[in-house]
Specification:
Residues 2-229 form the ABC transporter domain. This is ABC transporter ATP-binding protein. Keywords: ATP-binding, Nucleotide-binding, Transport. One of its GO terms (molecular function) is ATP hydrolysis activity. The structure is a single chain. A six-stranded mixed beta sheet has the order 6-7-8-3-9-10, with helices on both faces. Helix 3 (88-98) packs across helix 4 and helix 4 (103-116) packs across helix 5. The longest helix is centred in the middle third of the chain and has 16 residues, at 162-177. It is built from eleven helices and 14 strands. The protein is α/β, with parallel strands linked by helices. Strand 4 and strand 5 (63-64) form a beta hairpin. 35% of the residues lie in helices and 28% in strands. It has two domains: 2-217, 3-Layer(aba) Sandwich (Rossmann fold); 220-294, Alpha-Beta Plaits (2-Layer Sandwich), CATH 3.30.70. It has helices at residues 40-47, 67-70, 88-98, 103-116, 132-144, 162-177, 189-195, 213-216, 233-242, 264-270, 286-294; strands spanning 2-11, 14-24, 29-33, 55-60, 63-64, 73-76, 150-154, 181-185, 198-203, 206-211, 224-230, 247-250, 253-258, 276-282. The structure holds adenosine-5'-triphosphate (ATP). The site of adenosine-5'-triphosphate (ATP) has 11 residues, from helix 1.
């Protein structure tokens, strides 16, 4: 559905994307993750035709990006692009028209899309008078009003409260169910973990790795991560070193990778003699994998 081939982009002397290739199949939800400035929005701007690549190309539904392919594509940008002095209904009617939505379907689609983002009672509200979260949801309604085959969501739930976030997640699941392909960027790793079939990690313009969560777990050769609080970290680190455990810090806390699952007593035995205040075990999560990919330990 979306075929991004060898994209490279520079802005002046700064290279922001290098040889990025990714392919999304119909009905797939793909999460593009990476730190601030990694090149996620630039990738989106390239595939929407807002900017042109120096090298590489983008195919949407097998066609080179053109005015025609624009109607296949719905985009929710990071900054809402809404007409503040128009109503919600007028915004949707305007964008629907631009994207070729037949006038016979327009009022039905406006109602369906506003309902999908829980704004059905706001059809006549002026956008400038809506809360930030409501404007974010309207922006999502705009992205889907013309029933695109490919929806690109740039940080769709940033600024939303938890219930609104659940609603957006549910909407993304429905889009997938309808066979719509979704490319999303997010800094919320639990959002990516819950929604995405595959995830790609972008860092300094390079796509470092991509795959399903279970495929990405292979980057951390551990069954569990154990986090330890102790008044003598040096002693815990020394013990862990004797067992060959890989050491990390997550949110400042000392942690080790366990290559195999251990009984609690076996685990405690490894740190015998260390003044342990607490010990917590967790499976390998997307957060661990993300940090491994994007940080330099
Ligand atoms: N029009 C532009 N002119 C010059 N530099 C740009 C332009 N657009 C983006 N950049 C630079 O390209 C790099 C990638 O930016 P981009 O917005 O794609 O990152 P991002 O991964 O989306 O970041 P964030 O998570 O903060 O949204 C940054 O260094 C940014 O300053």
């Amino acid at each position: 559905m979306l075929d991004i081939q060898n994209l490279s982009k520079t802005f002046g002397p700064r290279r922001v994307l290098t040889d990025v290739t990714l392919r999304l199949v119909p009905g797939e939800v793909y999460g593009l993750l990476g730190p601030n400035g990694a090149g996620k929005t630039t990738t989106i701007n390239l595939l929407s035709g807002l900017i042109r690549p120096d090298i590489g190309r983008v195919l949407i539904a097998g066609e080179a990006a053109s005015d025609r392919t624009k109607s296949y594509l719905g985009i929710m940008p990071q900054q809402n692009l809404l007409y503040q002095s128009l109503t919600c209904g007028e915004n949707l009617a305007f964008f629907g028209k631009i994207y070729g939505l037949p006038s016979s379907l327009r009022s039905q689609r406006i109602f369906t899309c506003l309902k999908a983002v829980n704004l059905e009672d706001r059809v006549d509200s002026i956008v400038g008078a809506l809360s930030g979260g409501m404007q974010r949801r309207l922006s999502l309604a705009v992205a889907i009003v013309h029933q695109p085959k490919l929806v690109v969501l740039d940080e769709p739930t940033t600024g939303l409260d938890i219930e609104a976030r659940y609603d957006v997640w549910e909407l993304i699941r429905q889009l997938k169910h309808q066979g719509v392909t979704v490319l999303l960027t997010t800094h919320l790793l639990d959002e990516a973990e819950r929604l995405c079939d595959r995830i790609g990690f972008l860092k300094q313009g390079h796509l470092l790795a991509q795959g399903s969560l279970s495929e990405l777990r292979a980057y951390i050769p551990a069954q569990e991560v154990v986090t330890i609080q102790t008044t003598d970290e040096a002693a815990a680190m020394a013990k862990a070193k004797t067992y060959g455990l890989t050491q990390r810090r997550y949110d400042g806390q000392l942690a080790f990778w366990l290559p195999e699952r251990l009984e609690l007593r076996e685990l405690l035995a490894k740190f015998e003699g260390c003044p342990i205040d607490s010990i917590a075990r967790s499976p390998v999560t997307l957060e661990h994998i993300y940090l491994e990919m994007t940080s330099s330990f």
